[in-house]
Amino acid sequence: MSQNSPIRILVIHGPNLNLLGTRQPEIYGRTTLADINALLRRRAQDAGAKLDSVQSNVEGEIVTHIQNAATRYEAIVINPAAYTHTSIAIRDAIEAVGLPTVEVHLSNVHAREPFRHTSVTAAKCLGQICGFGAQSYSLGLDAALAHVKGLRSSNQEPIS
Predict the structure, then answer these.
(1) Cα–Cα distances in angstroms (integers) from residue 43 to residues 30, 139, 155, in the given order
(2) Residue stretches of the chain with pLDDT short of 70
(3) 54-58 contacts: CB < 8 A, separation 24 or more?
(4) For 63, how many CA atoms within 13 A lie in the half-sphere containing its CB?
(5) Which residues are bridge partners to 109 per DSSP?
(6) Per-residue pLDDT, 111
(7) 119 Cβ contact list (under 8 Å, min separation 6)
(8) How far apart are the two ends of the chain, measured CA to CA in Å?
(9) What's phi and psi for 56, nearest 5 deg?
(10) Which helix (H) or strand (E) holds 129?
(11) What CA–CA distance (Å, rounded) separates 41 from 136?
């Protein structure tokens, strides 16, 4: 991507996130996925960036979105949801495309059930942000934008 072109970010929402606002509001809050996407679009626009978002309940579709991102985006913000703990395929796709990726979660996964403490995807990401509700996405977007701006200013290739 050209130094002067807007930074392009892809946000990927994993399984069950289409139910936000009604699914376990005591854990995930009442903010809907549409609310989160609108917030992120505004935040990206304010930063002079372009943002697209997708949601899928299907692991293979998420892998395809990651693979297709390689030629269209400079970074990914992903909430793999339950696939965080199980999907080697998503982990491998993140590694294969080499785009800077930030993993986000609405809840603090480390304060929940023990099986949620392990992320198989986080090791292939720049970092993980969790526990701040919808703000986790905003923080993830900010981190991705800052990383890409740093790469652009140093004229480096993305590393994840």
Answers:
(1) 20, 10, 24
(2) 1-3, 111, 113-115, 117, 156-160
(3) 54/10, 54/11, 54/12, 54/13, 55/12, 55/13, 55/14, 55/17, 55/18, 56/12, 56/13, 56/14, 56/15, 57/14, 57/15, 57/16, 57/18, 58/15
(4) 12
(5) none
(6) 66
(7) 80, 84, 85, 103, 109, 128
(8) 17
(9) -150, 145
(10) strand 127-130
(11) 15
Under the phi-then-psi rule, with left for phi > 0, alpha for psi from -120 to 50, and beta for the rest, what region is 27?
A: alpha
Question: Which residue in the block uniquely carries the two structure tokens 């986000």?
Answer: 104
Dist. CA 35–CA 94, nearest whole Å: 26
pLDDT given for residue 2 in this prediction: 60
Superfamily of domain 8-154: Dehydroquinase, class II (3.40.50.9100)
**Amino acid identity, residue 65?**
H
Token representation of residue 99:
């785009």
The pair of three-digit structure tokens given for residue 145, joined into one six-digit string:
């934008």
Residue numbers annotated as active site:
28, 105
pLDDT at residue 159 in the model: 52
- pTM of the complete model beyond 0.70: yes
Contact yes or no for 130/105 (Cβ under 8 A) = yes
